[in-house]
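Notebook entry, structure prediction.
Reason for the run: the old model in the group folder had no record of what sequence produced it. Starting over properly, with the input documented here first.
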Amino acid sequence: MAATAVCLLLVPLAQWLQPSGESDLVTGAQGPFPAAFGAEAPVAPEHVMRRKTGERVLVHGLSVESTTDGARAVNLRTGKEYWRYERQDESSVAMSFDVSERTVVIAYRETLVGVDLRTGKRLWHEDLGDGEVFRNVRLGAGQALTEAPGAVRAFDERDGRSLWTAKTPKSCPEVGVYDAYALADHVSAVPVLCNVASIDTDAEQYYLLLGADSRTGKALWQQRTSHPRGRSGATHTLWPPRNLTRTTHWPSNCST
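New structure, fully documented this time:
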């Protein structure tokens, strides 16, 4: 009888610390998935889907927020925590995260972790092994983009497969990924900061906008900019809110 009682007490603990990672804290979804507010097309995209404020993203009926060791989702209707994912080893401090309509990807110094938005359970993790500086991650077109030495790397947001690597110029050996824009004709536009760790050196820090084939990572074009943030307008045009040296436009075959 006593043994049965002990086993019953251990069941919730086993659900809390699931085998998705040796020391991962995974609560799992608490109740039915909260749907987005409003069903009409003009309401849901503008007021619920993908609205960002600092370290919080609103998507469907959830607010996804960063924590010291990972991320958590809060039910917007109840204000209660819906799920939480965290890595528990001492070296795992979450540095950034991004959210799509299906996936949360968290960047640690040497690792990327993909978490299912609906369940809070880990989908995959990728050990990168080059964690010398701050790591960022951005999602676009089903891909998670992060920095690598002298390059931008892309992974499948659902299974973590390595998809492609786009090289940066020799003048940009240290890369910081700022954002990712999925555009027409399989083009990814990626603003990066070059020489992010060059404060104490003579290397020039500058922003660079990269155009890459989202299937292969082949570099299509590159342009220096004075501001890293852009905005996608027409299917073949990307422009920032201010301070870009010029509007970037390319033909549909992306041959230039």
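Summary: The first helix runs from residue 2 to 16.
The old model has been moved to the deprecated folder.
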